[in-house]
Amino acid sequence: MEAGGRVKKCFVSSQAVMSMLMVQVMATGMQLLSKIILNNGTFVLALMTYRHVVAALCMAPFAFYFERGIKSKMNWSVFFWLFLNSLSGILFAMGLFYYGLKYTTATYAVNFLNLVPIVTFVFSIIFRLEKLGLSTRAGKIKISGAILCVSGAMLACLYKGKTFHLIHKTLQHHVQVNSSVAHMARGTIMLIGSCLCYSLWYILQAKLLKVFPFKYHTTMITCFLASIESAVIGLCLDRSSAAWKLEWNLQLLTIIYSGSLASAATFCLISWAVVRRGPSYPPMFNPLTLIFVAVLEALILGAEITVGTATLNKYGSELVSRSLL
């Protein structure tokens, strides 16, 4: 009985860690698939519209089965927070990230996700969701993790060093995709904006789940609102049928994968973790996505790995280790 109790306690304590690891694995697949189809000309807002329609449909059965009878909880105040949630966390944060990803590389774009923990931490202190606690061990760990976030992201952006490949150069033409013209300055600005919006989204998650503690309905309604917002703005920018046409190809696979796993499942796991560990906990695992993406982008797409990226991977591993303490 005592051994069984220890196993159960270990399992319960590791649930938050395992859920965040799953989020990073699903995010890695989404980043790579999205980079490929964006380089091949996919319209960003069409991708976001279809992705979140799929996400809303995936969440609907869970919402209506597990969270029945919540109509009395819905009001204009809740709808306002849901609207802000979709606006900041999907339309702005994800839209800017997609455009930043399109103009740069997957590894470079994911670098900026390492800034999300520190910005979220600062926002949490400003909005009094967390205490700094410099005199405590936990506070010192948070500060050191924040410093690692900033130093790692700055290292990858400002220093590249020597480049090397994980596969032989003669093999790269079999796996490379059409590369878009790199507008690094434009992409960097969009990625910074995406970082700020993602951090604000984590703060809004904490507030929203206090006034409307139904994660399945929250995810479903947020995705539904985001698909409408993306469609409206997308149609204002491009009404051509070619931009919105769907075919049986990698684009459709990316939409289904992103909608069902990278949006629906990920949003539920993040909401669950925010309730239990606070808004600063989920983004602490973002450096893992950088490690996964850097390696897989080099293996699958033939991208270069630089000394700066390799060093940042070391920073990322240390940061995640600290977040588990």
Automatic annotation (TrEMBL):
<keyword id="KW-0472">Membrane</keyword>
<comment type="similarity">
    <text>Belongs to the drug/metabolite transporter (DMT) superfamily. Plant drug/metabolite exporter (P-DME) (TC 2.A.7.4) family.</text>
</comment>
<dbReference type="Pfam" id="PF00892">
    <property type="entry name" value="EamA"/>
</dbReference>
<feature type="transmembrane region" description="Helical">
    <location>
        <begin position="141"/>
        <end position="161"/>
    </location>
</feature>
<dbReference type="GO" id="GO:0016020">
    <property type="term" value="C:membrane"/>
</dbReference>
<feature type="transmembrane region" description="Helical">
    <location>
        <begin position="78"/>
        <end position="100"/>
    </location>
</feature>
<dbReference type="InterPro" id="IPR000620">
    <property type="entry name" value="EamA_dom"/>
</dbReference>
<dbReference type="InterPro" id="IPR037185">
    <property type="entry name" value="EmrE-like"/>
</dbReference>
<keyword id="KW-1133">Transmembrane helix</keyword>
<feature type="transmembrane region" description="Helical">
    <location>
        <begin position="43"/>
        <end position="66"/>
    </location>
</feature>
<protein>
    <recommendedName>
        <fullName>WAT1-related protein</fullName>
    </recommendedName>
</protein>
<dbReference type="InterPro" id="IPR030184">
    <property type="entry name" value="WAT1-related"/>
</dbReference>
<feature type="transmembrane region" description="Helical">
    <location>
        <begin position="216"/>
        <end position="235"/>
    </location>
</feature>
<feature type="transmembrane region" description="Helical">
    <location>
        <begin position="106"/>
        <end position="129"/>
    </location>
</feature>
<feature type="domain" description="EamA">
    <location>
        <begin position="186"/>
        <end position="308"/>
    </location>
</feature>
<feature type="transmembrane region" description="Helical">
    <location>
        <begin position="16"/>
        <end position="37"/>
    </location>
</feature>
<feature type="domain" description="EamA">
    <location>
        <begin position="18"/>
        <end position="150"/>
    </location>
</feature>
<dbReference type="GO" id="GO:0022857">
    <property type="term" value="F:transmembrane transporter activity"/>
</dbReference>
<keyword id="KW-0812">Transmembrane</keyword>
<feature type="transmembrane region" description="Helical">
    <location>
        <begin position="181"/>
        <end position="204"/>
    </location>
</feature>
<feature type="transmembrane region" description="Helical">
    <location>
        <begin position="255"/>
        <end position="275"/>
    </location>
</feature>
<feature type="transmembrane region" description="Helical">
    <location>
        <begin position="287"/>
        <end position="312"/>
    </location>
</feature>
